Amino acid sequence: NQSGEVGLFRANLAAEPAIVRFAEGLDTRVLLYNGGNPVIEAREGDRIEIDFRNGIPDQPTTVHWHGMPVPADQDGNPTVPVAAGASQRYVFDLPQGSAAPYWFHPHPHGHTAEQVYRGLAGIFLVKPEKDPIPAEYGDTILMFTDLRLAADGSIPENGMMDRMNGRVGDHVLVNGEKNPVLAVAKGEKRRLRLFNATNARFLRLNFENASMVLIGTDGGLLEAPVALDELLLAPAERAELVVAFDQPGPAKLTTLDYERGWMGPGKPEEAGMTLLTANISDSPAPAMPALPAKLREIAPLPAPVKSRRFVLSESMSGMSMAFQINGASFDMNRIDEVMKRGDVELWEIVNKADMDHPFHVHGTQFQIVEYEKDGKVTKAPYRSWKDTVNVVSGQTVRFLIRQDMPGQRMYHCHILEHEDLGMMGLLDVQ
Ligand code: C2O
Ligand code: CU
Ligand code: CU
């Protein structure tokens, strides 16, 4: 769709093995989409046709369009695998109002975590007809991934600690690079779109020497900007920021410590990493238009007709962990919940486990109502569209949700090791 008009967007996509040099003299075998982590850009109203080929020699895969309003049979569910060497065309329409920072990743049964930590992930930006964010702010993507390299340059398999806590790597990469440099002019404002594409790393972020304003979440823009001191981005979450580089630089995007309920020894160092450095030139930026006070309207979802409760738990079974929702581990041949299409429901996610679990639902966006912990209820501070919400250990999160399309949808913890180990359920929308 080069013309800028609403129309047909066609692309080829292949998942294939590749060799990358992260460390001098060492070859690392990875899996990539079209040789990298592509950014697909389309517009509201477009029809999307993606011709996908699974070039992974020995495993099935799927392409899941995370957060997008895609028909269930086109959404890369584990129930619709693409065999090694096989192809599949994914077709879907992007409705009006769907502009948001989405992403895509594999979702094959039992191999999701592995294919993602080996490198398979991409961005899918849906742009609106008219964008309220000034074009002068640019549009900068920051995709976080998490790399672990063995001494010989290979990517080691998951061990027991990885399966328990989710795999946390040794190097957080931004668009495939460690601590890349962003060149900005003094006084410049930038629109940054952040994607947590790691398997299991919680990113508690801070921008030293710059000010952050939150303008959007998983499902697109907020109604109004919200000033932030820091931002917690759980696995699979996205955020859109406007960052003002109004102080003498450099400005650094750094991490703060976060207690996510690490189990066992070896909690990885999470604080004090510099993920991105903005070098600020002395020459002042051209005058920047102000960020509008109102970004868009988000209609509140109406009162729910029904509520549903999901209890997250983990338990030791022998030498390994079991991760469950409502006491059951995922079974592809079992429907866990049946929901009526078009109904608004209140979902209550109760985390009875010792660690945080970011909860995700396919096929739609929801509106968080409130959080409850130790008997204390906190209302959501602003309305937003989300497809993934972190549920802190001991916390209950309530959100309003509606599914507009029929078919089977997954809901799961987005620590991908937990998802592979069973913290996932199947929702049938009728
Ligand atoms: Cu990114 Cu089933 O999800
Ligand atoms: Cu998803
Ligand atoms: Cu989890």
From TrEMBL:
Protein name according to UniProt: Bilirubin oxidase
Lineage: Bacteria, Pseudomonadati, Pseudomonadota, Alphaproteobacteria, Hyphomicrobiales
Amino-acid biosynthesis among keywords: no
MF-aspect GO terms: bilirubin oxidase activity; copper ion binding
Domain Plastocyanin-like positions: 21-130, 165-248, 319-429
Alphabetized UniProt keyword annotations: Metal-binding, Oxidoreductase
Documented EC number(s): 1.3.3.5
Enzyme class: oxidoreductase
